[in-house]
Q: What sequence folds into this?
């Protein structure tokens, strides 16, 4: 067996490498055979079979002679007492460096093996193993290619190991090596590692799925043969050259899909999309041409098309994916890609490395390879400051290896999202308009809040409004955790930018005018804009008017005034009618039981927060409400936002003016002219000819209140108008002294 494998390896390299390079591999093989002479594996076979099989796999990838030679020699330092220096003298520094890198990773593997006889598992050793692997990848990706090939052959011969060792090694392979292969775009080795690990980790499920596939094998093969014949004929008639063949479903991928089906109450036998074909063509233009043939032949399944050619995955994967209702309406998955894309999809970075080496150092193709590996170097920079082993390991698993989640649409179409993504990210991933109309979500059939982080295998259903309502500003708040992906954030910001910029500018200018007048500040508008890092004044006004920047934030910059003491005016505070709560969204989900707080009477446009009561649902307060600031149980505070509503909300105002005949008539006329409903009014005249008017009005929004302020301020003799919190009254004699009011104006919507 060993002689046959070795001869097959030499035959491969003679066909793919120049004579002098093939000679290097032959010398490395002879040296490895001598070094491992007399050594046997646990299975009893000569040890040399392991490095020869590892090298043979890499030769199948058409890698260079240096990598294949290092693969043949990768165990001689660890197991045969050969020094790295000796390898350098015999085979060159590149081979020695690769062998040294693999040897260091192998030593760490033994330390991290929980059942290793060398040493028990130590805290931090697995983190250090991964860190070393990442560094080796950044220095020379071929080190990890050898390590992956080494792990693949070990998994294929794992049956001779004790049960506890099989489980430990399989778990590490599934957690680390298979995701690493996926991140490097090596689909062929990824699925083999997953299936082999799954076989030992969950043998019962493995056998059940294998049995299912075997029982349906004849039916599946007959159907695939039928559709491939139809496709070949139609594609040829359309004038395209293509290779069409059935694509097998891998056992572990079926298991993961079965988990998603189980969440929907379905059995594994209900999995219908076990049928898949792949079409390989010469050029990108042919990909789209053949796709047209497929879609004209069979009706596409809505929402089941992905174009990874125009938008490649992070691991460099490119292909067209579609699903159609094929013969007799049976769903069929179809992948269309070029031959080159197929090589890259199967062998990933290994193929890119070969592509780079063939181009020569310094060429555009070589630089393109380096650009594709930039993500790895960036990730290493981000991890450099993480000193704790546990923190580092968790960060690596989420940011590098498990950086993606695979979730399903209600039609069982799988979607790939960054880890930590929420239903809002999912909605915008499907379609921008779906994100804009999102008002809620169900995960695995259960209603969840929109900040719920999705997990692999989840089935996500987006609930939408019947009318276009647009996203919530809360979704852009990073502290609330509604959105993780940059795509969703950009779509949300774009929606707000498109909403009546001119109106937002006018509204923002009016809001700022009133705020600066109320505080009697001497700042110019441009100076205030620069406080928030905005050079363009219109951008600042638009941010205020659209709610991207709240007037409360401006107030905090402009004033740090003390709270006003109680007034003698209207010492018996009135009880305002309870405001409607329609349109309030709690945790991104509408239609929950809410009520407006009587202490601060929030108005649409105010920054608000919800307080979970024990019997009356969620009470909505203004964020600057003293009751909110003083609450002890902060866990009962939840994010809430304003929805679309036509209801009226009560607002208490204080107006300071010079007394004159007809003053109250003109003020109430100005308010009524803007559609505000006046509930009551109380006046107090001072000896110096000034008057303080306390009134309660009803308005539908902050925009309407802003217009009321503008019209009242334009009434002759009116000096100021401010909004009051519940229980807050003007200072005694404030009207006579002309002091500004102490109430902070609300934020806009």
A:
């Amino acid at each position: 067996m060993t002689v046959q494998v070795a001869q097959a390896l030499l035959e491969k390299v003679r066909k793919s490498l120049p004579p002098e390079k093939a000679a290097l591999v032959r010398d490395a093989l002879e040296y490895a055979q001598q070094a491992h002479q007399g050594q046997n594996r646990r299975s009893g076979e000569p040890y040399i079979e392991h490095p020869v099989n590892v090298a043979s796999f890499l030769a199948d990838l058409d890698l260079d002679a240096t990598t294949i030679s290092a693969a043949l020699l990768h165990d001689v330092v660890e197991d045969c007492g050969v020094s790295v220096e000796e390898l350098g003298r015999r085979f060159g520094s590149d081979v020695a460096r690769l062998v040294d890198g693999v040897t260091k990773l192998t030593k760490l593997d033994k330390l991290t093996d929980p059942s290793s006889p060398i040493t028990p598992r130590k805290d931090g050793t697995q983190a250090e193993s991964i860190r070393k692997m990442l560094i080796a990848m950044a220095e020379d990706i071929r080190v990890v290619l050898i390590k992956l090939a080494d792990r693949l052959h070990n998994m294929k011969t794992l049956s001779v190991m004790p049960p506890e060792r099989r489980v430990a090694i399989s778990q590490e392979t599934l957690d680390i090596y298979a995701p690493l292969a996926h991140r490097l775009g090596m689909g062929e080795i990824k699925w083999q590692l997953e299936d082999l690990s799954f076989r030992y980790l969950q043998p019962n499920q493995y056998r059940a799925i294998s049995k299912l596939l075997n029982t349906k094998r004849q039916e599946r093969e007959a159907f695939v043969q039928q559709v491939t014949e139809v496709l070949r004929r139609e594609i040829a008639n359309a004038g395209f050259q293509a290779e069409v063949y059935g694509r097998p479903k891998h056992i572990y991928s079926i298991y993961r899909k079965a988990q998603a089906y189980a969440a929907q109450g379905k059995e594994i036998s209900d999995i219908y999309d076990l049928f898949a074909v792949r079409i390989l063509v010469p050029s990108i233009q042919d990909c789209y041409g053949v796709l047209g043939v497929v879609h004209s032949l069979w009706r596409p399944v809505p929402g089941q098309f992905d174009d990874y050619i125009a938008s490649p995955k992070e691991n460099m994967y490119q292909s067209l994916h579609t699903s159609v209702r094929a013969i007799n309406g049976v769903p069929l998955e179809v992948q269309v890609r070029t031959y080159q894309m197929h090589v890259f999809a199967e062998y990933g970075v290994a193929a890119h490395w070969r592509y780079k080496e063939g181009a020569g150092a310094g060429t555009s193709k070589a630089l393109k390879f380096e650009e594709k590996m930039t993500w790895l170097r960036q990730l290493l920079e981000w991890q450099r400051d993480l000193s704790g082993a546990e923190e580092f390991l968790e960060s690596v698993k989420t940011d590098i290896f498990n950086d993606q989640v695979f979730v399903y649409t209600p039609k069982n179409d799988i979607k790939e999202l960054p880890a930590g993504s929420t239903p809002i990210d999912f909605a915008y991933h499907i379609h921008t308009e779906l994100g804009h109309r999102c008002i809620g979500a169900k995960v695995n059939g259960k209603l969840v809040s929109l900040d719920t982080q999705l997990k692999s295998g989840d089935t996500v259903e987006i609930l939408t409004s019947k009318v276009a309502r647009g996203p919530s500003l809360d979704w852009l708040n990073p502290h609330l955790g509604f959105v993780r992906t940059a795509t969703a954030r950009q779509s949300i910001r774009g929606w707000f930018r498109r909403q009546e910029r001119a109106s937002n500018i006018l509204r923002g200018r009016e809001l700022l005018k009133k705020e600066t007048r109320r505080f009697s500040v001497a700042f110019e508008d441009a100076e205030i804009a620069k406080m928030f890092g905005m050079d363009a004044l219109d951008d600042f006004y638009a941010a205020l008017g659209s709610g991207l920047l709240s007037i409360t934030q401006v107030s905090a910059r402009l004033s740090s005034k003390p709270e006003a003491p109680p007034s003698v005016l209207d010492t018996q505070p009135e009880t305002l009618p309870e405001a409607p709560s329609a349109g309030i969204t709690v945790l991104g989900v509408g239609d929950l039981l809410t009520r407006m707080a009587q202490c601060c009477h929030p108005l649409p446009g105010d920054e608000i927060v919800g307080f979970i009561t024990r019997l009356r649902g969620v009470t909505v307060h203004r964020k600057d409400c003293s009751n909110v600031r003083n609450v002890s149980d902060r866990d009962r505070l939840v994010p809430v936002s304003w929805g679309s509503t036509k209801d009226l909300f009560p607002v208490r105002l204080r107006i300071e003016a010079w007394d004159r005949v007809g003053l109250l008539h003109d003020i109430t006329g100005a308010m009524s002219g803007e559609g505000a409903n006046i509930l009551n009014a109380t006046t107090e005249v001072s000896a110096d000819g000034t008057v303080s008017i306390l009134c309660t009005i009803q308005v539908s929004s902050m925009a309407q209140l802003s217009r009321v302020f503008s019209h009242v301020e334009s009434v002759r003799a009116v000096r100021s108008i401010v909004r009051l919190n519940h229980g807050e009254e003007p200072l005694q004699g404030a009207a006579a002294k002309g002091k500004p009011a102490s109430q902070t104006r609300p934020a806009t919507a």
User: Anything to note?
Assistant: The radius of gyration is 35 Å.
